[in-house]
Amino acid sequence: MNTLKLLTLLLLSWIAPAQAVEQPTYTLLRTHEFFEVRNYEPFVVAEVVVPGPANEAVDQAFPLLAGFVFGQNRSERKWEMTAPLMQTALRFVPPAPATADPIEMVETVLVQLMLPRESSPAGLPEPLDPRVRFREVPRQRLAVIQYSGSWSQANYEEHLELLRQALSQAGIMVLGDPVFSSYDAPLTPWFWRTNEIWLRVQ
Questions:
Q1: Sign (positive/negative) of CA torsion 183, 186, 191, 192?
Q2: Do 121 and 70 fall within a single domain?
Q3: Are 57 and 87 in contact (CB under 8 A)?
Q4: Least packed by Cβ within 10 Å: which of 10, 42, 63, 173?
Q5: Using 50, 70 and 90 to split pLDDT, how confident is the model at 9?
Q6: Could you tell me if 57 and 131 lie in one domain?
Q7: 76-91 b/e with 16+ CB inside 10 Å = b?
Q8: 52 and 108 assigned to the same domain
Q9: Which residues contact 96 (CB under 8 A, 6 or more apart)?
């Protein structure tokens, strides 16, 4: 499937409001001035790991994930688009070189797309691209802050810090790394976009 056709399918599948697209199931536990605490039911994702930085990750990863959903698999099976698209920054230290030069941390980004609710990793067809893998995300309790606007590191960091401070003031312990979740098609105007940051909490 060529890039133009893939982008056309993406636009048509996500042209409806984000609320009309299948999303993870959760129960609202608590509402705060700046965040909500939610219990999420398990769900299955297709995922890839791509080089950072975060602002370039979706451009690399989304064609692979959307391609799988739109039939780039051994069974040529297709699904309706779902939401959200999730990003988690991964940092690791590469093997030490033979020189005495300082070793720098390498940043990669885990990008995940939720699959339809009836999916199970064992029952999914093999992707044509071996970089696409499957994972079942277990039941989890998340603190979630929601905001609009297009992706920018500054916008993300501002809301992540707001969430962290609000959780600290509320006495809620954070257990995991932040996940940036976006719910809208790439051509959605910035003022209509729905973005969330998720933090796993106790």
A1: negative
A2: yes
A3: yes
A4: 173
A5: very low
A6: yes
A7: eeebebbbbbbbbbee
A8: yes
A9: 103
